Amino acid sequence: MAANAIDQTRRMLSLVTYLRERPGAHVADVARAFGITEDELISDLDVLPMCGTSFRGGDLLDIDTDGDRIWWHNPDDVAAPLRLAADEATALLVAARAVATLPGLRESDREALLRATAKLEAAAGEAAGASSRLSVTFESEGGVFAEVDRAISERRRLWLRYYSPARDELTEREVDPIRLFAVGHTYMEAWCRLSEARRTFRLDRVAEIRILQDPAAPPEIELRDLSEGLVQPSAEDPEVVVEVGPGGRWVAEYYPHDRADELPDGGLRITLRTPAPASLRRLALRLGSDGRIVAPQDLADSAREAATAALAAYEG
């Protein structure tokens, strides 16, 4: 079972201290000490250089690896006591209070966050008073994230009402959550009891969520490598051909494809594969006059009918 977001944050904070005390540590030794794979460690190391001591892009952690050893080049530069400006203290306090209200947050984490917030208020002085007049309301995705994160931590099953854009319908299903990850949007990978298969759910498409008492028991499956993106078509997936004009060239940037041939008008003829060709009807509607599905013929006809129906509804 993959670690949840809160556990990963704890690990990375400990990793900073660990690496400071062990310059040139071997990747294999560090991974073994933290009980994770070397790939998971490298993933953490890819994030740490984006962390630092200032919201304004001040000193960042200069940490890198050659694949064998890990080097932290500026530990002394970021070791000085942190001095927060008024706007930084205000932002931290507002965010901390907002996170403390999230549903599904473990009580021990909520209490720890509130203790840290109290200490920050005492250190911030007048800025703390300004922050008390501000508040943040999370959109529904925040609550869904907290529930999923809690379910992963407690290894419990989830019940969902989920919107499927390919079928344009809401479905109810029970799932055993495996991990949370972000690739543009935030997703949950889970074992779906409805389809008896691994499925990926986008959190902003979850209409309703509930943690069940049943224990989560996903089968042992190999986690996919998402470094090449969320959508990774296979050679067995159906082939679709889309022609786009100059205004639709962005499709080749956002959709993995086998080839993209230039057209005389400055457009592209894009050949791609997808396990769910019907989902591309929405792409055709979005493109409008900037593109069309060429093959397979039944999908092209279906997209044309959907566009005609949409136009009729609009005119009506």
What keyword list fits this structure?
alpha+beta, 24% strand, 316 residues, 38% helix, globular, four-stranded antiparallel beta sheet
Task: Give structural notes.
The protein is α+β, with helices and mostly antiparallel strands. The chain has ten helices and eleven strands. It has helices spanning 5-21, 27-34, 38-47, 86-100, 107-124, 126-131, 140-154, 251-254, 281-287, 297-315, and strands at 63-65, 70-72, 156-164, 169-183, 185-192, 197-202, 206-215, 239-244, 259-262, 268-273, 291-295. It has a five-stranded antiparallel sheet, with helices on one face. A four-stranded antiparallel sheet has the order 9-10-8-11. Strands 1-2 form a two-stranded antiparallel ribbon. Strand 5 and strand 6 (197-202) form a beta hairpin. Helix 4 (86-100) packs antiparallel against helix 5. The longest helix has 19 residues, at 297-315. It is globular, with a radius of gyration of 24 Å. It starts with a helix and ends with a helix. The relative contact order is 0.07. The mean pLDDT is 78.
Lateral arrangement of strands in the main beta sheet: 6-5-4-3-7
| Measured distance between first and last alpha carbons | 51 Å
The quaternary state of the protein chains shown equals: single chain
Helix content: 25-40%
Number of helices: 10
Mean pLDDT level: 78
Q: Give a short account of the largest sheet.
A: 5 strands, antiparallel
Class by SSE composition:
alpha+beta
C-alpha Rg (nearest Å)? 24 Å
Order of helices and strands: HHHEEHHHHEEEEEEHEEHEH
Number of strands: 11
